[in-house]
Write a structure and sequence with these properties.
Chains A, B: Pfam families: EthR_C, TetR_N. 2 copies of one chain form a homodimer. Chain A is 80% helix and 0% strand. Chain A is built from 10 helices and no strands. The radius of gyration of chain A is 21 Å and the shape is elongated. Chain A has 205 residues and is an all-alpha fold. At the A-B interface, helix 9 and helix 10 of A face helix 9 and helix 10 of B.
Amino acid sequence: MQNSKQLVDGRHLRSIQTRLKLLEAARTIFLEEGFNKATISQIIKLAKTGYGTAYVHFTGKDDLLIVLIEDVMAQFFEIAQTPFFPRSKEEARGIIYNQVLTFLKLAESNRQMMQVFSEAMGLSPAIKTKWEEIRQKFIEGITRDIQYSQEQGLARTDLKAEVVAPGWFYSNEMYQWSIVSNEHPASLEEIAQTLTAMYTDGLYL
Amino acid sequence: MQNSKQLVDGRHLRSIQTRLKLLEAARTIFLEEGFNKATISQIIKLAKTGYGTAYVHFTGKDDLLIVLIEDVMAQFFEIAQTPFFPRSKEEARGIIYNQVLTFLKLAESNRQMMQVFSEAMGLSPAIKTKWEEIRQKFIEGITRDIQYSQEQGLARTDLKAEVVAPGWFYSNEMYQWSIVSNEHPASLEEIAQTLTAMYTDGLYL
């Protein structure tokens, strides 16, 4: 029994190691080649494993990238769920500024993988769907936050929360992509401050 | 001389007709297949012409799409250059509302070709560059408009025009793509009205 258990554990351990080697190799190849040019054969060669083994662990390039970027995505979901119960316009401004800055900084600190992700979005429906989920989660969260502010008498009620929310997220999202591609016109702090000022002065009373 | 001139004109006419047949065929194939799946061989088959002839007129799929979408692109450039000399916040709001609505309507009335264009952007650097030009033209125009409003004492001066402008264009652009993919949460008029209200109340005094 002892031997059989050790054998299973040994197999399991090797399986985990292979998975990690494949992920590590995929990261290297994606960063070197970009998503489109990267091939599974380059990845398995670097990971010193075979096609069959690779496909036991991952269904393909998209799948590898999604796993590689999972912790970044988890951080996006977390920002989207920032608690938001301001008691004044100024408190709202403070929370929103921090949320925007954290969002922009996440792109900056993961710039290279986000570049690969951005390239992959145009090529892989699975990756596009992944980003769409994040976008929807943000838009839902923002809609809730606007409705809360409207109910508290802090925000104007002549505009619909579900029409304001996408417009606001789009500004943040696209600024984030400009940070990913290193083409932003100001520091992250100034971008966050400008976006927040326009938004809170446009929406809050 | 008469005969020779007729011959040249005849050739020229046939060349124009071939070009138009190729464009017409490309439009049909792009709308049926999308950009990625469409092939030059499908296009020349439908246009009843050969590879050699096709490559006399166009360098490839990207080139065909760029020519097909040229008049839409020209209309975008025109909107980006809307004259903007408001004398009050209310006048600014009126001009901006019309500009936004025209912009969104352009996407709606060219939805199918814009869908092809959007797909092609992720695949063709030439088409991505084309859209980047339009985006830059808009951001430059908006920056000028904000600076004008600031100089006239109509807009707040604590924010930099070149940081406000991209954020504002991004909201419009992404809303436009949501219209292209038929996923917008409200009528074009309500979107334009909401975007304009948030923007002018956030920026103008």
